[in-house]
Amino acid sequence: MRKTVPTLNETSTPSTAATRKGDSTWTIVSTKERVSTPKIALLAAAFALVSGCAAPPASASGSGAPGKTRIVASDYPSRPAVRQFVAAMSERHGFDAASLDAVFSQVRRNDEVIRLMTPAPPSFKRSWRNYRARFIDPTRIAAGVGFWNAHARAVNRASLQYGVPEEVIVSIIGVETVFGRVTGDFRVIDALATLAFDYPRRADYFRSELEQFLLLAREQGSSPFAAHGSYAGAMGLPQFMPTSIRQWAVDFDGDGRIDLHGSPADAIGSVANFLSRHGWVQGLPLRYGAIVPNPERVGPLLEAGIAPKFAIAELREHGVDSRDPVSVDAPLALIELVNGDDPPDYWLGGQNFYVITRYNRSSFYAMAVIELA
Predict the structure, then answer these.
(1) Which residues have a catalytic role annotated?
(2) pTM for this one?
(3) pLDDT tens readout for residues 143-160
(4) Helix, strand counts (H, E) of the chain
């Protein structure tokens, strides 16, 4: 029997929201009822009460591996940046400030989150071949075949509905979580708050995601302390950030709720919808082999980034050509995959390669998805 959680506040337009399902699943459900404005303050106050009851006590080990995560007692409610955030949430979304203070008093800074988010030192030499080996391996491939076979109907239906190849949909879930085996055990609100208020280089982005996460929790009346995910706050089989959940997650199994943890069909449909909404072009190749005889001439092409901007004729002016047939007017980008001290690999990426990088803004990531697919 599913436990019901009282709805605390819902926006005036249909949206997606999140709730804890049982003891292990963070579920996203559609919210359609309207709540009148006078109820907002009272409902938001209840938010703090429910949150306080549902929040497990923070421990020294945090939500990561035992003995590896340092949890720091909260001083968030007294910080000026948090005070400004709370005031903005109250003004923009009708949250009760005292209720949010009660939530933030239970949020803990997680130093492991900061460690994992911090970029590698300049001396570290990135290598596509090493990166590739992490994702293209017999275990992941076998798991992918099993996942695809087990959910063949949903994968096929998503491909037909959204125009995205079946193998790409499956591959993204494989790269993200090994088909649901590794979805993350960080408490999402701790991860997002840590990055929003203790990681200045990306504070604006993570404050926006924290805002969206709190909206998810409020819309369904769920505890914001229930969700677990990656150190960056991504959740479920497809590792959607809160903004992506609210904008692009779909109820693909038709049960009236969006469950990115417990419903592979919802995860499959949501991945396909994300790619479609970001400009996927049905039938367009994922990549083209590149001929680069003179790498010293391609600097201007690489400086232009990975968004496809150049016709093949423009690439040829820089000594670059395609090994594969390509339309004369198809926009392309030159993709360089560095290999440490060894020569880089070169490819040409079109619109669909670029769309994959909207999921994770890395050429390494997009190429891993393509090769696993």
Answers:
(1) 176
(2) 0.81
(3) 999 999 999 999 999 999
(4) 16, 11
